Amino acid sequence: MKRILIIMAFLGSVIGCCPKADAPVKKEIGVQLYSLRELIGNPEKYAANHVEVFQALAEYGYTSVEAANYNDGKFYGVEPEQFKADVEAAGLKVLSSHVNRGLSAEELASGDLTAALEWWKGCVAAHKAAGMEYMVVPHIGLPEKLADLQVYCRYLNEIGRICKDNGIKFGYHNHSHEFKKVEDNVMLDYMIENTDPELVFFQMDVYWAVYGHGAPVEYFKKYPGRFTMLHIKDHYEIGQSGMVGFDAIFDNAVTAGLNDFIVEIEGFSTGDWRTSMKMCADYLLSAPFVKAAY
Predict the structure, then answer these.
(1) 96: Cβ contacts below 8 Å, ≥ 6 apart
(2) pTM summary value
């Protein structure tokens, strides 16, 4: 009997020390709140609808949000700390924000960035208080002169330096016009080549890239590691247009340098935001080419 008990104890210790099978890792999917601008696109709408919207997004499988309404130190009309609390109350994470302060004609002509960079210092402080990991400039118009684009590249580097000093990553988000030329230079290429990779990353909007006749995967290979974030976007629900090769994009995510991706859509073909946002999440959660982490 004693011998049997010893054997049983040994087996129990062996079984107990065996590693358990890892639980499936949840896919991290961010959402750009501009997609829901009709519901929370201003302070009044936000106050009325943010609880319902955030809870629904979390229910559908989204894990984080990218803000699109910063103004005078507030997000959607509330203090940074309150915005963070609102998001986290639904089980979501504050990840990033689209925010901009363009340069005036006088600032472009003189190259004096003093006032603009002072604005960014306050802006960065508010984003830090909100718990932002990323800040992204969503738009620079197509300059007429390369000299203006040079000033903007210097500007982006300086903003990136302020962000880095505060523990925030800084990037630029394209639309379609960045694939046009400024004095024989493709705007996006020039921006990538004339910004410091230690200070500025690029958030490629894959829908606008394709719309502007740019090839996302070719850019990943040409500028490996520069695309820390992606906007996984379609005109309507993700995958519905058939114009964007999402499988090839995700298959080359490591080359791109991808850490996080954000869902954004321009409108709802279903006529119902809940149905459409769930369709996007379902598509990405079920897609075998989308990994749980990058």
Answers:
(1) 30, 64, 66, 67, 132, 133, 134, 135, 136, 229, 260, 262
(2) 0.91
Report the SS3 class of residue 11.
helix
Distance of alpha carbon 240 from alpha carbon 209, whole angstroms:
17
Element (H, E) at 198: none
Tell me if residue 27 falls in helix, strand or coil. Answer: coil
pLDDT, residue 26, reads: 87
Give the chain's residues under pLDDT 50: 1-19, 21
Tokens of 239: 């995958």
Torsion angle (degrees, nearest 10) of CA 46, 162, 207, 214: 160
Whole-number Å distance between alpha carbons of 149 and 194: 10
- Locate the DSSP E strands across the chain: 30-32, 64-67, 70-71, 74-75, 93-98, 134-137, 169-173, 181-182, 185-186, 201-205, 229-234, 260-265
CB 180 within 8 A of CB 212: yes
